[in-house]
Amino acid sequence: MKITDIEIYKVKPRWIFVRILTDEGLDGWGEMISGTKTETVVAGAYEMGKRIIGRNPLEIERLWQELHRSFFRGGPINGTIVSGIEMALWDIKGKYFNAPVYELLGGAARDTLRVYSWIGGDRPDDVVAEAKDRVSRGFNAIKMNATEELHYIDNFKKIDQVSQRVAALRDAFGYDLDIAVDFHGRVHKPMAKVLAKELEQYKLMFMEEVVLPENEEAFEQIAQVTSTPLATGERLVTRWDFKNIFNKGVIDIIQPDVALVGGILETRKIAAMAEMYDMAVAPHAPYGPIALAATFQVDACTPNVFIQEQSLGIHYNKGFDLLDFVSNKEIFQYKDGFIDIPRGPGLGLEMNLDLIKDIDKEGLIWTNPKWKHYDGTIAEW
């Protein structure tokens, strides 16, 4: 079997789909992150995709090594391109052997998978009402952004507002609802210590990205003021970006993104390394249906995954949502806060190619919000 072509589709609200075709009629789907550089990713995907035309799609590790090992390697652009291509190759391989991808990675390690739901939006609001909605749909775990803009040193009033939101959730649900709070890299080290200490009283499931990954030396200081598990990893690419995280041993939960870190097998390798250091895994997956389906394949065969992010109804999904481009929508059916492990071959997806092609014609321009502090300086989103 040989790869004959690669197709890239730009799909609203903020997804890039890749389809790899073969001379035996099998195709595979992958997903790349558009971020704020959609056209750059698409151009790079076509450029790198040409390198594997005529190659055997079943030789995934060989192709991954060749795509990754350029002189300038790593980084989010290269990382997401390699990830999308790698996902599509696994989809082909699973279809070729008529098995879910996880069966080719050692088989299932679980019967079911716990999932959580986002609430509150970019600037968190109405969190109790939204949490009640999620609980009514069977979820027993939610995540919300902690705060809006926070300067390097800011007024405690903003910290108190975060505390009041979490307190309202605890008053409404007690400990029947698990709560995760995402600092989103918006909080600098001085205020991150203040916020982490303030939230200690609410016994959170975890706190995420308490500082940006380039400030990872601050994780240890923040860990000293809280017993709440700390999570990070959504912006890291390949095993090598996780090396210091593992060596330091301060982080409790890693969050690799299958659409950024290098794909399915790379995510599985990172999770296995985390298991060696007694760390949990909660993969990052706020994007489209293909990336989420690929993440489910990793979850199915990974024992230290304890919960999975999912993006159905997330506040970024404007105009279209996960189910719109998938024909077999039942694979994203959540029951009582859990989802069954996938059963179909490959990624288990049946994509609506006609709709994808129609939406691709409309083009895609997505940029994250641009925030500023009260003094006009740039704020982290």
Q: What is the CA–CA distance across the termini?
A: 45 Å
Largest sheet: 9 strands, mixed
Number of strands: 14
Backbone CA Rg: 20 Å
Order of helices and strands: EEEHHHEHEHEHEHEHEHEHEEHEE
Give the class from helix and strand content and strand pairing: alpha/beta
Strand percentage lies at 15-25%
Helical content class:
25-40%
Question: Would you identify the regions where 5 or more consecutive residues have pLDDT less than 50?
Answer: none
Using the coordinates shown, work out and report the CATH topology of the largest domain: TIM Barrel
Mean pLDDT: 95
What's the CATH C level of the largest domain?
Alpha Beta
CATH homology group of the largest domain: Enolase-like C-terminal domain
Q: Number of DSSP helices? A: 11
In words, what does this structure look like?
The chain is an alpha/beta fold and 381 residues long. The chain folds into two domains: 97 residues, Enolase-like, domain 1; 245 residues, Enolase-like C-terminal domain (TIM Barrel, Alpha-Beta Barrel), CATH 3.20.20.120. Strands 4, 5, 6, 7, 8, 9, 10, 11 and 12 form a nine-stranded mixed sheet that branches. Helix 1 packs across helix 3. The chain is globular. This is Galactonate dehydratase. GO terms for molecular function: galactonate dehydratase activity; metal ion binding.
